[in-house]
Amino acid sequence: MIDEGDCGEVVGSGVVTIVDASELTHSSRAQAGSGGGSLIDSLLSNALSAYLKTVQKDANGLITEIFVMDNKGLNVGQSNVTSDFWQGDEGKWQKSYLKGPSAVFVDDVELDDSSQRFQVQVSVPVVDPANGKAIGAVTIGIDAEGLLML
Fold it and tell me: Residue 59 is part of which domain span?
């Protein structure tokens, strides 16, 4: 179970503009290209990311990635480095978090650049059990080729 407290605070003030999100994404891409940096290292080393890495590992290759986004679309936990730090402009966040607690968004099957395998992403809201409201979203990448082998 993911607790809202496990997500941590990636952006200090909690107020994020489109410019901030774009700068964070640019910074995270640069850090990923150079093998790491403070933003990526802190995100990949938090408790939520550790949990997501375990879930991915236990899936024996069927799960290619898992990442959790906050109520602004910013990654707050991830099993591995993503190509974007801010997902708020993408369907995976807009069609899950913005659609409410019972939404399920299944994206098209696409070739994943990092794994060079075909995957499908499934996104659902992360719901606060105390009030039933969406507080973020989680996206799970599933190896579509691996599914065919089951």
Answer: 13-148
